[in-house]
Amino acid sequence: MEQNKIPQATAKRLPLYYRFLNNLNQQGKKRVSSKELSEAVKVDSATIRRDFSYFGALGKKGYGYNVEYLLGFFRSTLDQHEVTEVALIGAGNLGTAFLKYSFMKNNNIRITKAFDADWEKVGTDIDGVPIYHVDQLFEKLEDTKVVILTVPATEADNIADKLVQAGVNGILNFTPARITVPSHVRVHHIDLAVELQSLVYFLKHYPLDTKE
Amino acid sequence: MEQNKIPQATAKRLPLYYRFLNNLNQQGKKRVSSKELSEAVKVDSATIRRDFSYFGALGKKGYGYNVEYLLGFFRSTLDQHEVTEVALIGAGNLGTAFLKYSFMKNNNIRITKAFDADWEKVGTDIDGVPIYHVDQLFEKLEDTKVVILTVPATEADNIADKLVQAGVNGILNFTPARITVPSHVRVHHIDLAVELQSLVYFLKHYPLDTKE
DNA sequence: ATTAATATGTGAAAAATGTCACGACATTTC
DNA sequence: GAAATGTCGTGACATTTTTCACATATTAAT
């Protein structure tokens, strides 16, 4: 639990920095300034410098940041040297897309198991990820602590309860339901309809030229 | 452009309120207090009252809010009386999931066209949504101003340019790329890998019991 | 060597967001 | 109809996040 002085807003940007540093490194770039990085990730350069400064002095004045060093630093900060296994609950359209979509190319998080309520799907696998029945959560989840929830909204609360009982403490919730969990469980909501609606709202009600 | 005094944080919550008010209304509930709503949407009740207050005095002391009235108010505020058409660019796994996933049940936003680079898909439709070729953006996009971007990351910037030229001013970007657009175009990023990584980071580095 | 250019790290200010707590008023109860 | 209860709307305050702007150090150029 070490450094919990890092602002949440900063913490949410770390994976983003990490990904772009990886890109830069693969391109063979040796150094990068906060200004350059800013243009790539679309975050103000002062914000980037401030974010980095929470971890100490990572750069060099007049030079910028050493890509390899910074990458290594974030790799360990984000625990990317070890693989984190997550489970996917609900192998419907969206869930299946996540299993097929290898959006995990640049990081060490892997979806290693999936669960579904449909016995037709149970026993099969999608892109190598085995599908179990949701009733098998307790036996099969083992020590997976983080799950991606892509079940129908009506099932969300019910399944969430079971997940919590099975020891899960992190849920990435893609259902429109706002699930109820004990306070030791962290839920991040990604609400596709809300995102789209709020984008439309901003377009209609906010002057253009203003940024998110 | 009327009321741009509403804080962005508030604006982002409006669609959420709207959805839950819809639920309550369908359940036949006539009144709701900020406390009840708070439990449903998991937003502090004081925050809810403050949010609502930006629009004037919508409630009644000692009573709460009239569900039907509030719903009507938000319906017009969110322009839900008219249908907003959006296009989907990239009918791959994720894009197809969005087309099939009717996450638009409770609102008036419709995906009416899709575009893909694969000629095999062009001419077919997914759940009634016709698929055109990305080269046909100019002819077929017509006056669609908002798009959901689910193309491969490598194509993101290239396609974004074309979209902007075709008159799009709102992009919901699901690619890991941070696209570059003129300042009159609004982009909201939903970065699945980043969301998952930051959830994992929070779990490892922040004391439990703390909320997002 | 000297100068010019570059770019960090941060104190301080500003802006944005969230929360507390209470006066005022409406509703409900007795 | 009086008292008790419930709940809004908001001023004041607290917290979080962003941004400015510059002293300081490093590099690059001449």
UniProtKB/TrEMBL annotation, chains A, B:
<protein>
    <recommendedName>
        <fullName>Redox-sensing transcriptional repressor Rex</fullName>
    </recommendedName>
</protein>
<dbReference type="GO" id="GO:0051775">
    <property type="term" value="P:response to redox state"/>
</dbReference>
<comment type="subunit">
    <text>Homodimer.</text>
</comment>
<feature type="DNA-binding region" description="H-T-H motif">
    <location>
        <begin position="16"/>
        <end position="55"/>
    </location>
</feature>
<keyword id="KW-0678">Repressor</keyword>
<dbReference type="InterPro" id="IPR058203">
    <property type="entry name" value="Rex_bacilli-type"/>
</dbReference>
<dbReference type="Pfam" id="PF06971">
    <property type="entry name" value="Put_DNA-bind_N"/>
</dbReference>
<feature type="domain" description="CoA-binding">
    <location>
        <begin position="79"/>
        <end position="178"/>
    </location>
</feature>
<dbReference type="InterPro" id="IPR009718">
    <property type="entry name" value="Rex_DNA-bd_C_dom"/>
</dbReference>
<dbReference type="GO" id="GO:0005737">
    <property type="term" value="C:cytoplasm"/>
</dbReference>
<keyword id="KW-0520">NAD</keyword>
<keyword id="KW-0238">DNA-binding</keyword>
<keyword id="KW-0963">Cytoplasm</keyword>
<keyword id="KW-0804">Transcription</keyword>
<dbReference type="GO" id="GO:0003677">
    <property type="term" value="F:DNA binding"/>
</dbReference>
<dbReference type="InterPro" id="IPR036388">
    <property type="entry name" value="WH-like_DNA-bd_sf"/>
</dbReference>
<dbReference type="InterPro" id="IPR036390">
    <property type="entry name" value="WH_DNA-bd_sf"/>
</dbReference>
<dbReference type="InterPro" id="IPR036291">
    <property type="entry name" value="NAD(P)-bd_dom_sf"/>
</dbReference>
<dbReference type="InterPro" id="IPR003781">
    <property type="entry name" value="CoA-bd"/>
</dbReference>
<dbReference type="InterPro" id="IPR022876">
    <property type="entry name" value="Tscrpt_rep_Rex"/>
</dbReference>
<comment type="function">
    <text>Modulates transcription in response to changes in cellular NADH/NAD(+) redox state.</text>
</comment>
<dbReference type="Pfam" id="PF02629">
    <property type="entry name" value="CoA_binding"/>
</dbReference>
<comment type="similarity">
    <text>Belongs to the transcriptional regulatory Rex family.</text>
</comment>
<keyword id="KW-0805">Transcription regulation</keyword>
<dbReference type="GO" id="GO:0045892">
    <property type="term" value="P:negative regulation of DNA-templated transcription"/>
</dbReference>
<feature type="binding site">
    <location>
        <begin position="90"/>
        <end position="95"/>
    </location>
    <ligand>
        <name>NAD(+)</name>
    </ligand>
</feature>
<dbReference type="GO" id="GO:0003700">
    <property type="term" value="F:DNA-binding transcription factor activity"/>
</dbReference>
